[in-house]
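Researcher: Structure prediction, please.
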Amino acid sequence: MESIATQIGMPLDEFNRLFDQEGPFEFINGERIPKMPNIAGHGEASDTLRDAINDFAVKSQLGRAFREYTFVVSYTSNWVTGSRIPDVMYYTWDRLEAYKAADPDWKKKPYILVPDLVVEVISPTDNLGDLNDKIDLYLLDGVRLVWTVDLEREQVSIYTLIANQPFTKQQTNLKQGDILRGGEVIPGFEIPVATIFE
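Model: Predicted structure follows.
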């Protein structure tokens, strides 16, 4: 007896309809995961980072940052198989402009482009196991740099993949008194960690 393969995903118009009617959700491994409302501290930390990154990157013509935008991980022939909604996401200017130039209908869709940087702000109610899985997924998707902002510990963690290693993740933790830098993704960008938690 032949097995029948089930295609995970949904058409883009159905994805957009559900998003509009039922509210924001992430689409991970075939499951719709609702995006929950954020606490005030979560929103303020997200705004602080998004504004700082965007102000620096736009003035320098390096890129653009967005807060709680949806990006589609995998999309073929109008079929969506995965999506994410990071607290902040950033695209380099060249990649973003090339994407827009290649698709005249880009304004009518979520971004079908994996960001260069994502930021996740950790609220006290977040499940750390789920968060670690999410970090891994971002890196596997092709995100070059992931930052997590821990509101309780007042700590920022930086995640990257080590080059030429089979999925080996590197983590660096920053505390009050340290400086968060954009590295190769946002050259020249820096912000004191303390500023994020003010």
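Model: Residues 147 and 158 are 5 Å apart (CA to CA).
Researcher: Thanks, that helps.
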